[in-house]
């Protein structure tokens, strides 16, 4: 048996190997994570990555896997590679047997009667689900501060944001509360939290992973993807959740490529890697820029051909995104009205008409950022404004897609910093929505075009010692290229650091204990 | 309920020219719903034919029903429409509790079928062409029941119940272009048009086509303009007119109402109207402007539907014969004269006669019953003949009883009334009411003797060979037996009694 503290620091791939070799049981692994969650997640200055911890079911699944392994035979051989490896699920993804809140009061206490397709696939692989992770309400935000259940804290500095909307999943993985997590990415909600927490996250090609059961923010942009500590782990998880789903009409019919094999190729020689002129330099923190340049240098040394590409329409991407996303969100969130499920608030006085009950419910159930986006989207879709706003934004979207096409004619993979800055302080941008929206400037183009993107840790910024994310982008359906280049860059960087970047993160338990004693 | 002023139809026609337009919603009879795998079944316990998609649960996504698309293409082809090579869905957004997502997934800018026409045959054989603007796919809403108020209206109700069984049932909405030039035949055309659409979808087998169940629902738009003016008047839209007769009546009423409004120098209000079958009037619904903002935008959860030309042609090859050809065939099969057949069509009993013949009746017997008996009763009851509930088997049974001499024609009509009153099967009613032809000659002979004795001069005439005089004696016998005698047998017995060869 491995020491608990060591166990939780193992990658999913390492855990899978130990479980297969029966050096450790899934119950031990799962319990180790549950203990870690109990130690670091709760309390006033806890990470608060989890909204719900699924102790009983997770241990039951773990025990089932252990029993199958112990019995041996065909059933044991048929176990999925990740069977028994625990995982956390963003609370935007519906699960039977656990509440799903979307980080909103309006769904407080709601239990889904059905499982999301990705959750069905996790269950089929017999991966114990540790619980549901915190997020900005309905995934609207870049800091997880817009959660109705309090912000998640960044394990690197508990006074800083973990990114968003998937701050809970990223922080859970960074704080060793889970080896893997599921996220959703509409404008960067997997990649930006990955960048600021020093973890790996992938937004697959649009249609590559079923959206059935992910509570929709913006249907044409949303995509579920893996969150992990290593590139290989994301590939392993992507392989579990990806592939066609007849319940999602936008799901790609193509068979999934061998992403795990791609992560194991181990070279980038002769690959053309394109720096996007518009996605670095001005507006990017110096420390971010430095780490980005180092990564370029490493890839060059490894034999990659570094080229520069220009995507002139990316400057309009953020504006287009903030019309398309709220337009779709205003429509997708109309169903939360207190009639069929979730919160129902009755007006305090006056007639009890359906319109007034719906109004009172939505007024009380939605937070300010959600309301802001519903109002924006409703306005943008209104008669007389549609062409100027939604219509123009769709044209920009086409232009962004063309920029990508032109760029991918010159490069196999594109590269940029994932976010313009490292993690900012909690509360710092809460009252400045535009500053908050700028966090996603480098991640949004991929969502508009439907192309896949990966973030991996690129080191720590000189100014603040906080993690910097490197983003890789590939053409649609070429997710495998991200894993190939990502895994090579990761190994080159880790060779420099002498181990994973997260080894340099502060030991959370002591920090928490210190804080407690200081009181 | 306020009563609107109306002009007489004749006066309205003298002054104004009506323009019509119809939106007919056809519920498809697919096995499952438009966007979910829940069953599409009418009449089950509320909220049993629903799954997470129909309830608009968080996270759900729609998947288009392929059979619904095929049915829609068939309808489009039968309406002589062009079929879009690629078309999309949109979201029509409004908050209402019968719409679980608070938007309806519908087609907006690019319907699956467009630019068609339908030739409608009027009662006198005139053909009137109705241009079809489009036929598009959408999902039905759930059904609200308002409790505690008067007459199930939302006004004054204490609360409302919602049944989502109908939510997501596939609909095809058929929209006409403005129909000009119908003049005083506008009400007749209205009825004939809806009847034709109903016939088409029924023959295609894509809908159960029962208007009383709401399988076919009609919204009728009416506007008037002074004769000679080109610009249309302001229209009203009478919603959910759910029988063929009601369509005719509603159009007629709206013409008369509009005429009175215009005559008083007032503008017609653009609004929806509710049809009331009991008073045969409409009342004001909600104001409707062309600028109602439904914030339509393309449905991002669905990909475009691509109807390859090969697929369309495959579907075209499966279409049943067009209604006009079918009529020609049926008339020939049944041996009806042009006039007889047109009467059958205008009475709206062609399908019923076909079914009755299929159940075993001859063409002439079927026509005799439907045209001679049932149509008149339907008229008196103010319903469409098909809605009286007469089963083809009933007619076959009644006719067999007459042919077997168990009852006579007069009794048979009495039995039919009994069936319609719900008293049971024809056999049960004959038994219960004691209706049977008197076949024992004893009582008959007595009655004949009495009748002959009462009219000795007539008896002499018959003896002298004037056989046509026999009617007076037969009549006397029938009267004495309260009509229960078989007239043929009575005639035989009289002749035998008087020793005359028949």
How would you characterize this protein structure?
The complex is a heterodimer of chains A (519) and B (502). Chain A has helices at residues 4-7, 12-20, 26-40, 55-71, 73-77, 117-124, 167-174, 191-197, 231-241, 259-263, 286-301, 317-332, 354-365, 368-380, 387-410, 433-437, 444-449, 479-497, 508-518; strands at 50-53, 87-90, 129-133, 180-184, 200-203, 224-228, 272-276, 305-309, 413-417, 453-460, 467-473. Chain A is of the alpha/beta class and 519 residues long. Chain A has 2 domains: 4-245 and 257-313 and 399-518, Amidase signature (AS) enzymes (Alpha-Beta Complex), CATH 3.90.1300.10; 321-398, no CATH class. In chain A, strands 1-3-2-4-6-5-10-11-9-7-8 form an 11-stranded mixed beta sheet, with helices on both faces. In chain A, a hairpin with a 6-residue loop joins strand 10 (453-460) and strand 11 (467-473). The relative contact order of chain A is 0.13. The mean pLDDT of chain A is 96. Chain B has 16 helices and 16 strands. The radius of gyration of chain B is 29 Å and the shape is elongated. In chain B, helix 13 (441-454) packs across helix 15 and helix 15 crosses helix 16 (487-498). In chain B, a hairpin with a 5-residue loop joins strand 6 and strand 7 (127-139). Chain B has 502 residues and is of the alpha+beta class. The longest helix of chain B has 20 residues, at 244-263. Chain B folds into 3 domains: 9-315, no CATH class; 321-433, no CATH class; 441-498, Arc Repressor Mutant, subunit A (Orthogonal Bundle).
Task: Write out the CATH superfamily name of the largest domain in chain A.
Answer: Amidase signature (AS) domain
Poorly predicted ranges of chain A: none
Strand runs of chain A, count: 11
How much helix, percentage-wise, in residues of chain B?
25-40%
What structural class do you assign from the helix and strand content of chain A? Answer: alpha/beta
Number of domains of chain B: 3
Strand content of chain A: 5-15%
Which regions of chain B have little confidence, pLDDT < 50, spanning 5+ residues?
none
- Name of the top-level CATH class of the largest domain in chain A: Alpha Beta
The main sheet of chain A comes to: 11 strands, mixed
Output the strand order for the largest sheet of chain B.
2-6-7-10-1-11-12-13-14
Quaternary status: heterodimer
| CATH architecture call of the largest domain in chain A | Alpha-Beta Complex
Strand percent estimate of chain B: 15-25%
CATH fold group of the largest domain in chain A = Amidase signature (AS) enzymes
Q: Class by helix and strand content of chain B? A: alpha+beta
Write down the overall mean pLDDT of chain A: 96
Number of strands of chain B: 16
Beginning-to-end CA distance, first to last residue of chain A: 37 Å
* Principal-axis shape of chain B: elongated
